[in-house]
């Protein structure tokens, strides 16, 4: 089998179209995808597999409705650490990765250390999450929370 992970070929117009179509609907059959990108099914499938092996396509998943699943509250939390050493970073990252309420966590440059995006049932659940998880972690100096009042645009699709 050929290792395409370091494939030096740039993405061409068809590759980009495949990526865009799969971002819009990851459940497309290969036949439908090939029709949309104007390729026959076999070369289309070969391109999709190459894009997967090369890491352009990291996976496929369903988009769920948070409100129907009891996760209507969306919050962003700035987290500042009391010191910035490797042990504190690793402890924080390990703890955050174990939290099912956390959707995203990013180390950032600027006035705080991490930006956490979390989905919870309500303010009571958030308060419990804040007290039981975030502020109890070693090294956490302070947090600032921003509660989302309205989601204006939610789209994880990348421009291709």
List keywords for this structure.
2 domains; elongated; four-stranded antiparallel sheet; Tscrpt_reg_AsnC-like; 160 residues; transcription; Arc Repressor Mutant, subunit A; alpha+beta
Description:
With 160 residues, the protein is of the alpha+beta class. The protein has two domains: 13-53, Arc Repressor Mutant, subunit A, CATH 1.10.10.10; 73-147, Lrp/AsnC effector binding domain/regulation of amino acid metabolism (RAM) domain (Alpha-Beta Plaits), CATH 3.30.70. The chain contains five helices and four strands; from the N terminus they run H-H-H-E-H-E-E-H-E. It has a four-stranded antiparallel beta sheet with strand order 2-3-1-4. The longest helix has 13 residues, at 41-53. It is elongated and about 55 Å long. The two termini are 28 Å apart. The model has no long low-confidence stretch (mean pLDDT 93).
Q: TL;DR?
A:
The protein is of the alpha+beta class.
CATH superfamily membership of the largest domain, which one?
Answer: Lrp/AsnC effector binding domain/regulation of amino acid metabolism (RAM) domain
Determine the structural class based on helices, strands and strand pairing: alpha+beta
CATH uppermost class of the largest domain: Alpha Beta
- Using the coordinates shown, work out and report the CATH topology of the largest domain: Alpha-Beta Plaits
Low-confidence stretches: none
Write down the overall geometry: elongated
Beta-strand content bin: 15-25%
Please compute the radius of gyration using only Cα atoms.
20 Å
Residues in helices, as a percent range: 25-40%
Helix and strand element order? HHHEHEEHE
How many separate domains? Answer: 2
The end-to-end span amounts to 28 Å
């Amino acid at each position: 089998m050929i290792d395409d992970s370091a494939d030096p070929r740039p993405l061409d117009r068809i590759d980009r179209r495949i990526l865009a179509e799969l971002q819009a609907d990851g459940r497309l059959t290969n036949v439908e995808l090939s029709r949309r990108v104007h390729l026959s099914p076999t070369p289309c499938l070969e391109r999709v597999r190459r894009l997967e092996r090369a890491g352009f396509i990291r996976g496929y998943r369903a988009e769920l409705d948070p409100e129907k699943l009891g996760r209507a509250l969306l919050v962003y939390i700035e987290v500042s650490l009391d010191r910035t050493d490797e042990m504190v970073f690793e402890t924080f990252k390990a703890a955050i990765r174990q939290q099912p309420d956390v959707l995203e966590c990013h180390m950032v440059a600027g006035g705080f250390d991490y930006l956490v995006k979390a989905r919870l049932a309500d303010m009571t659940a958030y308060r419990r999450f804040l007290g039981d998880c975030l502020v109890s972690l070693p090294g956490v100096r302070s947090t600032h929370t921003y509660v989302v009042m309205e989601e204006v645009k939610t789209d994880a699709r990348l421009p291709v």
